[in-house]
């Protein structure tokens, strides 16, 4: 297709759908869609391999709109290409429960590959997608049967490239030579505050070349032939072993087509207004009413036939692959569906049996490695890694292979790039074929936090291994000791935060995280050894409920609830209390969100409201208030830590078994005072129990 006039009209269709939808919603960002319309038209009609009738087809190209505020561009593209996104949905842009939310959201609009809006993260997702493609190709392709062979295209704006994550993600992509990653930079010189020259004056070309990227500079982003040539050039080297990712820098005019606002920040994020839209129609010679697209343009845009052809071709290829490699083909499809191998349950059971019989104290990070050692070899889809803390996070299991730019593998040394790692893991999960997990210290979860949040929003099976989870890490001191992190991660809706107490709970946490297909998990693990706890035979089921009665000692007058390394301490306190004549119940709460999802009846049975409750966790106490109530008590750490050996810190912060027993006593007394009919005379109150 090289009819320039037709292409310009096709791009103008994107522009007008954008401005009309935004005007109708009285909200949105017309600037970037109008500026990138020509680029989008060329990419989507001449290069992108996609099938609107089958948006999930495995070998489609991936398209990511990292500058997600340009969402109307994507909706217009999907609509015109023939996806199940009728014009009525474009007319409901940004309205409650429409298929056209404010920023693109995966799972809501067919054809949207990832949720974008937090600038820079889409680029991080795209790096993960391109990596998944490269690894999957290395694993599954056979001579003459390249069943995995697609590109990842990502649009980025100035904002994406200003964000720090773009450095992490692009440095990694260059290092790993992700040659099928093609980023298109909307170099319009404008962001919200105005001309970016005052705050973004990098040599972008030099920067990306230094990362090991190909850079195609100075492309006129409004010249379809120039854009096409750049895309061709980017694709031509994409299959080479030494190929590089490509950045195409397109000079564009933000809001192009708007006579009075183009080229200014005024068009970035506000409706043009009726007058300006009328003038835009004039300037673009667009005689059609709002939401009206002439038939010839509809035909030119319609990608259904071309898409179905491409998919059918792939299906034929896959049928041949299936014939010559039936086992591989079966495994490929299983992994695409996100299903686990048939023997997964058996492997988990064997691990659980071993851990239930174990008698040595172990750190839960070590128990996590044992779980990986047991399960990893049977789960080829596990794709692990760490942000340069492999030896501390214990994330690499026996027999797993480190991948490099030249060798495939199932373990990635992400380098010191926590946010980049988390965003890439989201991309890997979105791509399909892998279950990504990655490690860092819990304290640095703050660095990755928004990507963890995005995983939860997108309902992705991504597993974060956060070790060194409290003051219990000891000598590294307050910079490394988590205080508020467990509580604050638990506030992310849809994220299961596990803080297992021993090897058995750790094994169950891994099982649940792997089986949980529609949500991310964070495993908070100790550096220091934790006690060996005695479990009932059906422990695995109880643990999977997120909270359960671990031990009842005597007739309970007080309820102790704890997580992670503090369960052992609470258990020792329970013993002390018992010896002093105070019965208690010990509840382990390895995953509060799972506990919250249990029936009200179950929750009441585990935490009977009449029993005064004391929560113990070496972290911020506020979170536990919802479980202990106004009359309960919480023992935690509400200030920053200190540098010292772990045992000394537990004494300093009053989190020893003796401290817990003392507090439990006080609570029992207070409760007795507040509830005079409680039978306090039955047992001896000992106030000092050191
Ligand atoms: C992480 C993050 N910070 C801030 C914002 C708010 N924001 C949305 S668009 C934008 C400006 C982006 O500039 P640019 O990428 O050049 O977009 P253009 O104005 O060219 O469309 C900002 C600051 C955001 N979406 N994400
Ligand atoms: Mg800009």
Polypeptide structure, described:
It is a single chain. The protein is α/β, with parallel strands linked by helices and 690 residues long. Helices cover 43% and strands 13% of the residues. The protein contains 27 helices and 20 strands. It has a six-stranded parallel β-sheet with strand order 10-9-11-12-14-13, sandwiched between helices. The chain has a five-stranded parallel β-sheet with strand order 1-2-3-7-6, with helices on both faces. α9 links the parallel β6 (214-220) and β7. α2 packs parallel to α3, α2 crosses α9 and α15 (364-375) packs across α20. The N and C termini lie far apart (84 Å). Bound molecules: thiamine diphosphate (TPP) and magnesium ion. Magnesium ion binds next to β4.
List the helices and strands and how they pair.
Layout: H1 4-25, H2 31-47, E1 62-65, H3 71-81, H4 87-90, H5 121-140, E2 152-156, H6 158-162, H7 164-175, E3 181-187, E4 190-191, E5 194-195, H8 204-210, E6 214-220, H9 224-236, E7 246-251, H10 274-283, H11 295-301, H12 304-324, H13 326-337, H14 344-357, E8 362-363, H15 364-375, E9 382-386, H16 390-393, E10 411-413, H17 418-431, E11 435-441, H18 445-458, E12 463-467, H19 485-490, E13 496-498, H20 503-515, E14 521-525, E15 529-530, H21 539-544, E16 548-553, E17 556-562, H22 565-579, E18 583-588, H23 592-596, H24 600-606, E19 613-616, H25 625-628, E20 633-635, H26 646-652, H27 657-674
Parallel strand pairs: 1-2, 2-3, 3-7, 6-7, 9-10, 9-11, 11-12, 12-14, 13-14, 17-18, 17-19, 19-20
Antiparallel strand pairs: 4-5, 8-15, 16-18
The protein binds thiamine diphosphate and magnesium ion.
């Amino acid at each position: 297709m090289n009819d320039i006039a037709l292409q310009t009209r096709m791009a103008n269709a994107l522009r007008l759908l954008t401005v009309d939808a935004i005007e109708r919603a009285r909200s949105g960002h017309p600037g970037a869609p109008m500026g990138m319309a020509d680029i989008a038209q060329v990419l989507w009609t001449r290069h992108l391999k996609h099938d609107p009738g089958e948006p999930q087809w495995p070998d489609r190209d991936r398209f990511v709109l990292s500058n997600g505020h340009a969402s109307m561009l994507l909706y217009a593209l999907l609509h015109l290409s023939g996806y199940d996104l009728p014009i009525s949905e474009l007319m409901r842009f940004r309205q409650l429960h429409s298929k056209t939310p404010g920023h693109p959201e995966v799972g809501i609009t067919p054809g949207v590959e990832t949720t974008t809006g937090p600038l820079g993260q889409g680029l991080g997702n795209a790096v993960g997608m391109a990596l998944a493609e490269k690894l999957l190709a290395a694993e599954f392709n056979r001579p003459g049967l390249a069943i995995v062979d697609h590109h990842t295209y990502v649009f980025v704006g100035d904002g994406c490239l200003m964000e720090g994550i773009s450095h992490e993600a692009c440095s990694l992509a260059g290092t790993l030579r992700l040659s099928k990653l093609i980023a298109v930079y909307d170099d319009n010189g404008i962001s919200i505050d105005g001309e970016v020259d005052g705050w973004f004056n990098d040599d972008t070309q030099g920067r990306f070349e230094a990362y090991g990227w190909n850079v195609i500079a100075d492309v006129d982003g409004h010249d379809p032939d120039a854009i096409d040539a750049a895309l061709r050039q980017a694709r031509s080297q994409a299959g080479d072993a030494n190929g590089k990712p490509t950045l195409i820098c397109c000079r564009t005019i933000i809001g192009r087509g708007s006579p009075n606002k183009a080229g200014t920040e005024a068009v970035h994020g506000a409706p043009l207004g009726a007058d300006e839209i009328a003038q835009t129609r004039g300037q673009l010679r667009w005689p059609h009413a709002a939401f009206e697209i002439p038939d010839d343009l509809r035909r030119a845009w319609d990608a259904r036939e071309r898409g179905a052809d491409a998919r059918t071709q792939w299906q034929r290829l896959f049928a041949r692959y299936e014939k010559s490699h039936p086992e591989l083909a079966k495994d490929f499809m299983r992994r695409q569906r996100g299903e686990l191998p048939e023997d997964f349950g058996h492997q988990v059971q064997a691990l659980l049996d071993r851990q239930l019989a174990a008698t040595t104290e172990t750190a839960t990070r070590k128990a996590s490695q044992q779980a990986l050692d047991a399960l990893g070899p049977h789960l080829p889809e596990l794709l692990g890694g760490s942000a340069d803390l492999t030896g501390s996070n214990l994330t690499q299991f026996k027999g797993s292979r480190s991948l490099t730019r030249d060798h495939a593998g199932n373990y990635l040394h992400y380098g010191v790039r926590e946010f980049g790692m988390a965003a890439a893991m989201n991309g890997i999960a979105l791509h399909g074929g892998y279950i990504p997990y990655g490690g860092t210290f819990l304290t640095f979860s703050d660095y990755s936090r928004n990507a963890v949040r995005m995983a939860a929003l997108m309902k992705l099976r991504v597993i974060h291994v956060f070790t060194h989870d409290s003051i219990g890490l000891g000598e590294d001191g307050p910079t490394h000791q988590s205080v508020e992190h467990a509580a604050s991660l638990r506030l992310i809706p849809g994220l299961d935060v596990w803080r297992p107490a021993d090897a058995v709970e750790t094994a169950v946490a891994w099982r649940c995280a792997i089986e949980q297909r529609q949500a991310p998990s964070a495993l908070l693990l100790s550096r220091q050894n934790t006690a060996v706890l005695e479990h009932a035979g059906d422990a695995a089921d109880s643990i999977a409920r997120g909270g359960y009665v671990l031990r009842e000692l005597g007739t309970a007058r007080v309820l102790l609830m704890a997580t992670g390394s503090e369960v052992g301490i609470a258990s020792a306190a329970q013993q002390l209390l018992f010896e002093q004549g105070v019965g208690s119940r010990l509840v382990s709460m390895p995953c509060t969100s799972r506990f919250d999802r249990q029936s009200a009846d179950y929750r009441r049975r585990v935490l009977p409201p009449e029993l005064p409750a004391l929560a113990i966790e070496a972290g911020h106490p506020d979170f536990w208030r919802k479980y202990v109530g106004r009359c309960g008590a919480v023992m935690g750490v509400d200030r920053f830590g200190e540098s010292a050996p772990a045992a000394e810190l537990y004494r300093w912060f009053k989190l020893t078994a003796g401290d817990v027993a003392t507090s439990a006593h006080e609570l029992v007394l207070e409760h007795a005072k507040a509830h005079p009919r409680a039978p306090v005379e039955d047992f001896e109150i000992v106030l000092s129990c050191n």
